[in-house]
Specification:
Length: 96
């Protein structure tokens, strides 16, 4: 059972990281927010960023490019949280 939980944890946090990386790259390259894929990425990842909003400034570069440090921090944070959960699951399975 713990193997299934570890794999599920890996999948969920990898998916979160992938979505956040897409958001970071799209913002960095000033993707058209009117495009349906871009809008979907922004809408899907916004709840993931809410705990980290207002921590860092969001500098805008000439031409509409945006460097979102909040997204970079969220990627780091969710990766670390996923690691901690996997370690807890590994510890729990070792005790049995």
């Amino acid at each position: 059972m713990s193997k299934i939980l570890k794999e599920l944890c890996n999948f969920v946090f990898a998916l979160i990281d992938i979505l956040l990386v897409f958001r970071f790259v799209l913002k960095l390259l000033a993707a058209n927010a009117g495009a349906s894929f871009v809008t979907w990425i922004y809408n899907t990842t916004q709840p993931l960023l809410n705990p980290f909003l207002m921590i860092f400034p969001i500098p805008k570069i000439k031409g509409g490019f945006t460097l979102e440090f909040t997204t970079l921090f969220a990627i780091f944070a969710y990766t670390f949280i996923g690691y901690l959960i996997r370690e807890v699951l590994a510890t729990m399975s070792d005790k049995k």
